[in-house]
Design goal:
alpha/beta, Aminopeptidase, 2 domains, eight-stranded mixed beta sheet, three-stranded mixed beta sheet, about 10% strand
Length: about 600
């Protein structure tokens, strides 16, 4: 393609808002996955090409990588920038290069136009939040910043006259050794951190410096995302669907173990039996690490996939260690520990409820059986189905489980299960209104990862599910006691105490009924020691703080996510990788808003005690 023909093609594509990929022989390439008012520029010679900066360019919506010093290319870039400016009213150029050795900061953000100082400060704030170990500073110039080895594309006056803004990123290659070898983990950290921040800077620029709606720049996933993103998402989903972690670590003989434990007068540790292992953890791990996540240039998506692979890897190790002492060590990695603060809150809840309940008597209540509870759940599913015809699931009453469990959007109920009517209303919102709703909202997303659950989603998920019980008026003191007791049982187990020690701690010190104490202890010691049950109370406490900060509760139902993923979720929604929740649970309807407002104004976990 001749130079004039190439230019006409590029300018025509920009005016038609059509993506293009143009290779300039012996010079470089221009890749516009979307026509946007922001161009990322990396100019370098072939010998001095930096892998991190090159990867960073590839992660942007519109990028130019020039590998030779060519004045004609500078003229081409000027014409492209001016054409972009004509289409959108302004244009942002972000040029990046390797810093000189004497630069003190890891990343120096350079600017010459005072008008974009708010944008630079926004970038600095995000970098310090997302990557505090990368030392970042701002440098104000009297001219438009650019790579010192190349000519400026525009003078300061031209930039001001034509509404073309320029940011310079001078990056010290701390991720590279003096012999030129790269430190792969540090390289990835720089690439992903800077990539995510630059995407946010782009949307902030659109919001502040153009009259465009940022949502116009959402990606057309079918056209503009490389196939490997969806292939890896599908592969991670397939590996996750090969097993159900909670089913595999939950005993199948709980009623029999309880009867046996009673017969020994609680002096012999019960023997639990588990389902046969349907997978080989080593083969699953091999499949996971055959996925070429490193080939994904989008830093946010690469981070999501890598984070999920790590969690699945750790779960495979736990399953391989099931019913051994090593299982508990894996649980600490996946589900975390019990902090002193959480323990103190749990102990305080038990103390306060004990005093409040000292003079109260509770009349016996007729229990619903498994089939009756299943009918309540089906009625809730019918209510949710009215919002979307795609919301379809079932309820199963089974003989091979104890209690209630949601498995991939299906509610499973043990055939011997019984529950009070009041508690049943709350549990329906916990299991159906939260666990099943977030499963289907996640399944409606382009990436199926959000139906399976991001790593560490359980804390927010269980906190939200318990909060749902509170919103409909079904969070009883007895339920809070159990959540607090689970924390104490986990802490006791981690201190090295036996099953019997923890059982008697709950029975004698906290006055739980024998079977209740047994079930709490069983849940904590199952598999070899599972710390997951401490997450319910921790998640509820953190959710109350989230609500008091005025945050959006509906966003938490978009899929199975965790709280520190929320900025990522907002980025993905803005870019079109995710959609707003398809279905809204009953407890977020208008009828329950007054109760939510009271928590927002003066909420505390202790104010939930009746």
């Amino acid at each position: 393609m001749r130079d004039d023909k190439r230019l006409n093609f590029i300018l025509g594509a920009i005016k038609a808002k059509e993506p293009f990929h143009v290779q300039v022989p012996n010079v470089g390439k221009l890749v516009f996955r979307k026509i946007v008012p922001c161009i990322f520029i990396y100019r370098t010679n072939i010998a001095g090409k930096d892998k991190m900066l090159s990867n960073l360019a590839k992660s942007q919506l519109a990028s130019v990588i020039i590998q030779e010093h060519d004045t004609e290319v500078a003229a081409l870039l000027r014409k492209i920038a001016l054409c972009i400016q004509e289409q959108f009213g302004s244009c942002l150029l972000v040029e990046v290069w390797n810093a000189a050795n004497e630069q003190a900061a890891d990343v120096e953000i350079q600017l010459g136009q005072k008008g974009i100082l708010p944008l630079v400060e926004y970038m600095l704030k995000n970098l310090k939040t997302e990557a505090s170990d990368i030392v970042t500073d701002i440098k104000k110039l009297k001219e438009v910043p650019c790579n010192p080895s190349y000519e400026r594309l525009f003078t300061l006056k031209e930039s001001m006259d034509k509404s073309i803004y320029t940011l310079g990123l001078s990056v010290r290659p701390s991720y590279r050794l003096s012999n030129g070898d790269y430190l792969p983990i540090l390289l990835r950290h720089y690439s992903e951190s800077l990539g995510k921040i630059l995407l946010r800077v782009f949307f902030e620029y659109v919001r502040l410096f153009t009259d465009q709606n940022p949502t116009k720049f959402r990606l057309n996933l079918k056209k503009e995302i490389t196939a490997n993103v969806f292939a890896i998402d599908k592969a991670l989903t397939a590996e996750s669907m090969r097993f159900d972690f909670l089913l595999l670590v939950t005993p199948i003989n709980v009623p029999e173990a309880w009867e046996s434990f009673k017969k020994t007068r609680f002096r012999k540790t019960p023997v639990f039996q588990y389902r046969p292992m349907p997978i080989d953890p080593d083969i699953v791990k091999r499949n996971l690490y055959n996925l070429r996540i490193e080939d994904i240039y989008d830093p946010t998506i690469a981070y999501l996939f890598r984070d999920k692979r790590r969690e699945l890897d750790e779960m495979m190790s736990m399953l391989a260690d099931r019913n051994t002492e090593d299982f508990m060590h894996g649980s600490l990695q996946v589900f975390g520990n019990v902090s002193d603060e959480l323990l103190q809150v749990a102990q305080s809840i038990l103390t306060v409820i004990s005093h409040n309940s000292a003079t109260q008597t509770v009349a016996p209540e007729r229990k619903l059986n498994a089939k009756e509870f299943a009918q309540l759940a089906r009625e809730e599913i019918a209510y949710l189905s009215e919002q979307s015809e795609d919301f379809k699931t079932t309820v199963r009453v089974r003989s091979d489980i104890s209690g209630v469990m949601v498995n991939r959007g299906v509610l499973n109920i043990g055939e011997d299960y019984q529950i009070s009517p009041e508690r049943a209303r709350a549990l329906v919102q916990h299991e159906v209104g939260t666990h099943i709703v977030t499963y289907f909202n996640g399944k409606a997303q382009p990436l199926q990862l959000f139906s399976l659950g991001v790593p560490g989603y359980e804390q927010l998920q269980e906190g939200l599910a318990v909060f749902a019980e509170y919103l409909i008026g079904g969070l009883s003191n007895q339920r809070l006691r159990i959540l607090a007791a689970r924390v104490i049982a986990v802490r006791n187990m981690l201190m090295g105490h036996s099953f019997i020690d923890t059982f008697f701690l709950l029975l004698e010190d906290y006055l739980f009924a024998e079977e209740t104490a047994f079930n709490i202890t069983m849940r904590v010691y199952r598999g070899g020691g599972l710390t997951k049950d401490a997450l319910y109370l921790q998640g509820l406490m953190e959710l109350i703080d989230y609500i008091k900060q005025g945050q959006d509760l509906n966003l938490l139902t978009v899929g199975k996510i965790r709280e520190d993923y929320i900025p990522i979720i907002q980025d993905l929604i803005q870019r079109g990788y995710m959609y707003a929740p398809l279905v809204r649970p009953r407890y977020l309807s208008e009828a329950y808003l007054p109760r939510l407002d009271s928590v927002r104004n003066e909420g505390s976990i202790f104010k939930m005690i009746q």
